[in-house]
Amino acid sequence: MEEFEIWVEKYRPKTLDEVVGQDAIVRRLKGYVEKKNIPHMLFSGPPGTGKTATAIALTRDLFGEVWRENFIEMNASDERGIDVVRHKIKEFARTAPISAPFKIIFLDEADALTADAQAALRRTMEMFSKSCRFILSCNYVSRIIEPIQSRCALFRFKPVPKEAMRKRLLEICEKEGVKITDDGLEAILYISAGDFRKAINVLQAASAVGELIDAEKIYQVSATAQPKEISEIIETALNGNFIEARERLSRLMIEYGMSGEDVISQFFREILSSNINEKLKVVLIDKLGEIDFRLTEGANERIQLDAFLAYVSTVAKK
After folding, report:
1. Contact 188, 203 (CB under 8 A)
2. Pair 45, 195: CB distance under 8 Å
3. Looking at residues 111-115, what average pLDDT do you find?
4. Which of 104, 118, 200, 211 lies 20 to 30 A from 136 at CA?
5. What is the chain written as a DSSP string?
6. Does 91 score more than 70 pLDDT?
7. Angle between helices 260-273 and 242-256 (to 10 degrees)
8. What's the pLDDT score for residue 72?
9. Domain residue ranges of the chain, discontinuous segments joined by +
10. Does 223 have pLDDT greater than 90?
C-alpha cells in the first residue's frame, strides 16, 4: 500500500549534510560532532529556516541509532508555565543517557516561556549540565532572558537563500514526478520569502491541482496576489483613480481570499521594489506602517485599506 506523507516531513534533513542554506552554522556544528560534545545552544531566526530540523540532524549525527532514546522535543508554546520546567524537563534530565555521554532536550519556541519559567530553566540547565544539554529555539532572541543567553552558544539562522531553495525544490520535483515551470518556481520563491517550510507546502498543494505547476496555480493555492496585480493597484491609485484602485483591490481580495495583513505585506514589498520616487516611497511606507498598526489593534481591514488607497491618491495629486 502506497504511503502518503507530508512532503515537509518526508524531506526533513536526516544529517547535517542535508541541511539547506545554513552552511556557516552547519560547519560550526560539525566541529562539535567531531569532538562528540556540545554546549547548551540557542537557535534563533525566522520561521521555516531549519532550526528544528538542524537540532534533530545534529542529534542523529552525534548519537547514531540511539538518538531517539536520548532526545526529547518539547514545544514551549503548548505549556508556557513554570510547572513544565519543574516537572517534565527535570524528570527527563534526571534520567541517565542510554549508550551516549549525555541527553539532549530540544525546547522549541522557547521565547513563549514566561519569565518565571525561564528563570527556573536557568537553574535546571546548571544542575544537569553533566548529563544533559539544552537546545533552545526561538524566533526572537530578545525575548530570552540574558542569563539563559549567556549560558548558550548562539546560532542565528537566516532566511534560506533563493539559489539553495531553488536547487532543493527542483530535487523534490524530480523525486515526486512533478513538472514545474520557471515562472512557477519563481512564484514559490517570491511567496515563501526564505521560509523553506512554506515553500514545500505550497509546492505540494499546487501539485494536487494539476500535472503542470505554473505561477498562476502557485498564487491560487497560496492565496497570494501576483506582484503585477498589486503593482497595478498602486499605480492606479498614484494616478489619482481612487475608485478604480478600490474596485481592483476588492476583486483581488475576493478572488484570492486574502486578508488585510496579506495585502499590507504585499503592498510593502511592491512599493520597496518599484521605481517610485524615493521621497514618495518614504511617505507611503510610513503611512502603510500606520495602517498595519491599526489592523493589529483590531480596526476594520476594508476601511483601513481603502483609507490607504485614498491617501495614495491624495499624495499623488499633491
Report:
1. yes
2. no
3. 85
4. 200
5. ------HHHHT--SSGGG--S-HHHHHHHHHHHHHT----EEEE-STTSSHHHHHHHHHHHHHGGGTGGGEEEEETTT--SHHIIIIIIHHHHHSPPSSSS-EEEEEETGGGS-HHHHHHHHHHHHHTTTTEEEEEEES-GGGS-HHHHHHSEEEE--PPPHHHHHHHHHHHHHHHT-EE-HHHHHHHHHHHTT-HHHHHHHHHHHHTT-SEE-HHHHHHHTT---HHHHHHHHHHHHTT-HHHHHHHHHHHHHHHT--HHHHHHHHHHHHHHS---HHHHHHHHHHHHHHHHHHHTT--HHHHHHHHHHHHHHHHH-
6. yes
7. 120
8. 87
9. 7-156, 162-221, 227-317
10. no
Q: Band of the pLDDT at 1, cuts 50, 70, 90? A: very low
The architecture CATH gives domain 162-221: Orthogonal Bundle (1.10)
* pLDDT higher than 60, residue 212: yes
Q: Region 181-209: what's the mean pLDDT?
A: 92
- pLDDT tens across 293-307, in order? 999 999 999 999 999
Q: Which residue has the cell 537540532?
A: 55
Phi, psi angle pair for 105, to nearest 5°: -105, 115
Q: Are 281 and 247 in contact (CB under 8 A)?
A: no
For CA atoms 290, 187, 168, 209, the dihedral sign is positive
81 — pLDDT class (breaks 50, 70, 90): low
How buried is residue 55: exposed, middle or buried, by Cβ count under 10 Å (0-12/13-18/19+)? Answer: buried
To the question of domain 227-317 being in CATH 1.20.272.10, the answer is yes
- Which is more confident, 187 or 115? 187
Mean local confidence (pLDDT), 220-229: 89
Specify whether the CB–CB gap between 85 and 124 falls below 8 A. yes
Kindly report, residue by residue over 132-143, the tens digit of the pLDDT.
Answer: 999 999 999 999
